[in-house]
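Lab notebook, bench 4. The sequencing result for the construct came back, and we need a structural model before the next group meeting so we can plan mutations. Quick request posted to the team channel:

Model the 3D structure of this chain.
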Amino acid sequence: MSEPRAEIGIIGGTGVYELLELLENVMEYKVYTPYGETSDFVTIGNFKGRKIAFIPRHGKKHRIPPHKINYRANIWALKSLGVTRILAPSAVGSLREDIAPGHIVIPDQFIDRTTSRISTFYEGSQVCHISTADPFCPELRNVVIQVCKELNYPIHERGTYVCIEGPRFSTRAESKLYRSWGADIIGMTLIPECPLALEAEICYVNIATVTDYDVWAEKPVTRKEVFETLEKNVEKTMRILANVIPKIPEVRNCPCKDALKDAVG
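Done. Here's the predicted structure in token form:
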């Protein structure tokens, strides 16, 4: 059997496992990594002439909490398969009145509030100071924004994603603090997934679908509420992915491919 290869990776967030229905000639592979097991088997298939590799971020049946995801294994596995672009849908809470449940945010910045996650591949003889001044691929962001507009989905073209450790939701005081910092959305999975992709020189874009207002809005967030809205967002996310994939340029024209230049010492 020939070695499996793919060009576009999708790390599916909560509820996005239906993506597999879009793929043809599907095969599952166990990818062994220096960092342990990936969240689940990697599924590789074809979609409109593009080779796609899919990893369910939380594993099948949503069995891995955000602070226990093996982010390094997931990114390393995709890199080893030849992936150069990653589309990363995720569910988030809103920190702004005008960003309502059901809206889509394509963040351009993040704030890291995680506490226990290993966020680099470089822990040995080499040190890497990767730049995250602009952490998301501008080329991929433009493609996703264009598609959302074509589909007439409510979209916010910019936003700051504050990533918390989880698995608990924020206190009211924390939520209000994040709002005062200028954060727009809140989630638990962007870090270290995004900076690790940069270290691997993989283009990365987050497609954040809003499930609820965070607790600043004086209404406690419940798992039931999140998942009810999430189900409504899944079809929207699937249509975005289906329209984005064919529009991704085959040749990269962005700084991501050279992210390690002058970063490793």
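The chain has one domain: 8-255.
Will bring this to the meeting.
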